[in-house]
C-alpha cells in the first residue's frame, strides 16, 4: 500500500528491514546503543561489527533522539538508530517521545542528504507500545514531516508480521483518506 504526499512516496510493506536497499534503515535501538534483541539484534547481526564499533564511539542516545552510523554489510548505506519510549500506560509522554523518534530520524536523513528511508515499528516489541496506537503516531508524524520537507523520495514502513502490517494499514487508510 502506498500514497504520494507532495513528492514523497509513503509505503507499507511486510518484510525484513535488514534486506532493505534504501539509503538508510532505522533501528529501534536501546539508549546505550548496545545491540539487543528484536530488530536491533537482527540489524547488528546482518550488518556486522562496524555498526557496533560506531555505536560504541557515539556512546548513548536518549529516548526520542537519533544517531547515524554506517550500514556495514547491509544493503542500506546507513543505519539511523532511534530510541522509542518504553510503554507504561500512555500517560507518561510516550506518544510525544515516539513521535520525536520518527521526526528526529527523518531530520537526520535529510541532514545527511539521504533520499530513501525504511522504518520498522518502533517500540512495539520489547518496549510494549500497543501496535494500533504506535501505527497512528508513526504514520501521522511521518506524514506531517514530509508535508513540510520535500527532500525525501521514499519513506517505507517495513512491518515484520501480518498483524503489524494490518494495524499500520488501518492507520494509513484513516490518515490518507
Protein architecture, described:
The model has no long low-confidence stretch (mean pLDDT 97). Helix 3 runs parallel beside helix 4 and helix 4 crosses helix 5 (162-176). It contains 5 helices and 7 strands. The protein is 40% helix and 20% strand. A hairpin with a 2-residue loop joins strand 1 (2-5) and strand 2. It has helices spanning 38-47, 49-58, 94-111, 131-148, 162-176, and strands spanning 2-5, 8-14, 24-28, 66-70, 78-82, 116-119, 154-159. A 7-stranded mixed sheet has the order 1-2-7-6-3-5-4, sandwiched between helices. With 177 residues, it is α/β, with parallel strands linked by helices. The protein has one domain: Leucine Aminopeptidase, subunit E, domain 1.
Describe what is shown at a glance.
The chain is of the alpha/beta class.
Number of strands: 7
What is the name of the CATH architecture? 3-Layer(aba) Sandwich
Quote the beta fraction: 15-25%
Distance between the termini: 13 Å
Structural class: alpha/beta
> Using only CA atoms, what is the Rg?
15 Å
Main beta sheet strand tally, sense and closure: 7 strands, mixed
| CATH class category name | Alpha Beta
The CATH homologous superfamily is named: Leucine Aminopeptidase, subunit E, domain 1
Q: What value does the average pLDDT take?
A: 97
Question: What spatial form do the alpha-carbon principal axes imply?
Answer: globular
Oligomer: single chain
Number of helices: 5
Per the CATH scheme, the topology name is: Leucine Aminopeptidase, subunit E, domain 1
Low-confidence stretches: none
Amino acid at each position: 500500500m502506498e500514497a504520494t504526499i507532495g513528492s514523497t512516496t509513503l509505503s507499507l510493506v511486510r518484510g525484513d528491514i535488514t534486506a532493505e536497499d534504501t539509503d538508510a534503515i532505522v533501528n529501534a535501538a536501546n539508549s546505550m546503543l548496545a545491540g539487543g534483541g528484536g530488530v536491533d539484534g537482527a540489524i547488528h547481526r546482518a550488518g556486522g561489527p562496524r555498526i557496533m564499533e560506531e555505536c560504541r564511539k557515539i556512546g548513548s542516545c536518549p529516548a526520542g533522539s537519533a544517531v547515524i552510523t554506517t550500514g556495514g554489510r547491509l544493503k542500506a548505506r546507513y543505519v539511523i538508530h532511534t530510541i522509542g519510549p518504553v510503554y507504561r500506560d500512555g500517560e507518561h509522554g510516550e506518544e510525544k517521545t515516539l513521535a520525536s523518534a520518527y521526526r528526529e530520524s527523518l531530520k537526520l536523513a535529510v541532514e545527511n542528504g539521504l533520499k530513501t528511508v525504511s522504518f520498522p515499528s518502533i517500540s512495539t516489541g520489547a518496549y510494549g507500545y500497543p501496535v494500533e496506537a504506535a501505527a497512528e503516531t508513526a504514520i501521522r508524524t511521518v506524514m506531517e514531516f514530509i508535508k513540510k520537507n520535500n527532500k525525501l523520495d521514499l519513506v517505507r514502513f517495513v512491518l515484520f508480521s501480518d498483524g503489524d502490517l494490518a494495524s499500520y494499514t488501518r492507520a494509513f487508510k484513516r490518515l490518507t483518506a
